[in-house]
Amino acid sequence: MIVKEEHELHKRRRRRNLALGGVLLAFVLLVFAVTIVKLANGQMIKAF
User: Fold this and answer.
1) What is this structure's pTM?
2) Which residues, in sequence order, are CB contacts of 15 under 8 Å at separation 6+?
3) Which residues make Cβ contacts (< 8 Å) with residue 45, sequence separation at least 6?
4) pLDDT digit string (tens) for 3-44?
5) Residue 14: closest CA among 25, 3, 22, 4
6) What is the pLDDT of residue 27?
7) Is the pLDDT of residue 47 over 80?
8) What is the CA radius of gyration of the chain?
9) Between vectors from CA 29 to CA 48 and to CA 36, what angle results, nearest 5°?
């Protein structure tokens, strides 16, 4: 069985992709939370 070691470039790219995914997830959760708060307060949501 051959175990192939991962290149450093792939490790850095994977870390960067995970960080970017985390930031995007945080943004989506923030937008969702703001929407829920606005709906809970009974405010009208308007598109400008």
Assistant:
1) 0.68
2) none
3) 35, 38, 39
4) 677 788 889 999 999 999 999 999 999 999 998 888 887 766
5) 22
6) 98
7) no
8) 20
9) 60
Q: How far apart are CA 7 and CA 35, in angstroms?
A: 43
Cα angle value 4/6/9 (rounded, 5°): 150
Query: Where are the domains positioned within the chain?
Result: 1-47
Question: 10: number of CA atoms within 13 Å, CB side?
Answer: 4
DSSP calls for 1-48:
---PPPPHHHHHHHHHHHHHHHHHHHHHHHHHHHHHHHHHTTPPP---
